[in-house]
């Protein structure tokens, strides 16, 4: 049901998909199957996030360890790349062919707040490093730019994911490089 819901949410948006439709599309004869397993739409969204975010954050933590091993101060570009690269790498994985579009849809709906019980370690690290780089900015500016960073990254990656299904998409390295430069320009306090 998780992958079916992920696809439906990615295609139609969170509010346009009924739990009955998810159950039917997942081959469940019981229309209450989603409520039984996940409790609510929010529970289902949380289950998708928990299912998909673990491997992505594990990869993000690998990249963090590589940079931390160098011992140098983290730049805005490096922190931006660490945010983007693990998500971009999922595009080549058949298992993740809807996830980035799901995230982009979910974050575009203001009534929905994507929350998991605990923020992934890699995301916490990225946010801390970027906030530290912008410490001379007012907190409202920092929050706004970090929010824009997520929206821009997810929209661009969702577009890349969609294009990759039909072929002709740029390489993951090119997407990561271009998106990192874009986010660096947005976030760089200088």
CA gyration radius, whole angstroms: 17 Å
Helix-strand pattern, N to C? Answer: HHHHHHHHH
Number of helices: 9
- Secondary-structure content class: mainly alpha
- Portion of residues in beta strands equals under 5%
- Average pLDDT across residues? 89
What does the largest sheet look like?
A: none
Based on the structure, what is the oligomeric state of the protein chains?
A: single chain
Helix proportion of residues, in percent? Answer: over 70%
N-end to C-end Cα span? 46 Å
Query: What's the structural domain tally?
Result: 1
Number of strand elements: 0
Unreliable segments (pLDDT under 50, ≥5 consecutive)?
A: none
Gross morphology is: elongated
Give an account of the 3D structure.
There is one protein chain. The chain has 190 residues and is mostly helical. It has one domain (55-187). The chain is 71% helix and 0% strand. The chain has nine helices and no strands. Helix 4 (41-70) packs across helix 7. It is elongated. The model has no long low-confidence stretch (mean pLDDT 89).
